[in-house]
Amino acid sequence: MSSKVLHYLPSDISALIVELIDQYTAGTVDLSPEELLTRIEELLPLEKMKRETTLRRIEGYSFATDTLWDKTLEIGHLDRKQILARAKLRPMSYYHYMTGSNVPADYASTRADLLNDPATARVKLRDDIMKLAGLLVELRSETAPA
């Protein structure tokens, strides 16, 4: 797991996200990728007029994505390029264009800049979570005993 500092995501919520993804990866909870995303969103509620809840959700999505990456690397014995190709993950620039963001593209060109363009980041990270979760299911079925 990366050791990046979390500013908006409380440690108890991040622990719940890790626990949920561990259960999902192990197959102890029967969830589709969409249901996994819904459960993560339930841990990261949005409140009107409170920008920090949006930032907490983005940071939570980013944390969940990092955790899914780690699990995919561990289970699939794949490298990052193989994961990108199999999960069909797209770069931030794709989502910047697709969302019609009015934030300059270079303000949010990497994952480290996600909080600079929250609307685009939410779309990208939601997509990444569902695609990585789908790939995990695929990898789990490939490694399951016949």
Short structural summary:
Helix content is 65%, strand content 0%.
Description:
The chain has 146 residues and is an all-alpha fold. 65% of the residues lie in helices and 0% in strands. The chain has six helices and no strands. The longest helix is centred in the middle third of the chain and has 26 residues, at 51-76. The radius of gyration is 15 Å and the shape is globular. The N and C termini lie far apart (31 Å). The mean pLDDT is 89.
* Basic shape: globular
Structural class: mainly alpha
Count the DSSP helices. Answer: 6
Q: Point out poorly predicted stretches.
A: none
Mean pLDDT: 89
What is the number of strand segments? Answer: 0
Query: What's the end-to-end separation, in Å?
Result: 31 Å
Q: What portion of the residues fall into strands of 2 or more residues?
A: under 5%
Query: How much helical structure, as a percent, in the residues?
Result: 55-70%
CA gyration radius, whole angstroms: 15 Å
Biggest sheet layout:
none
Order of helices and strands: HHHHHH
Features:
146 residues; globular; mainly alpha
Helices and strands, with pairings:
Blueprint: H1 11-26, H2 33-43, H3 51-76, H4 80-87, H5 92-99, H6 118-143
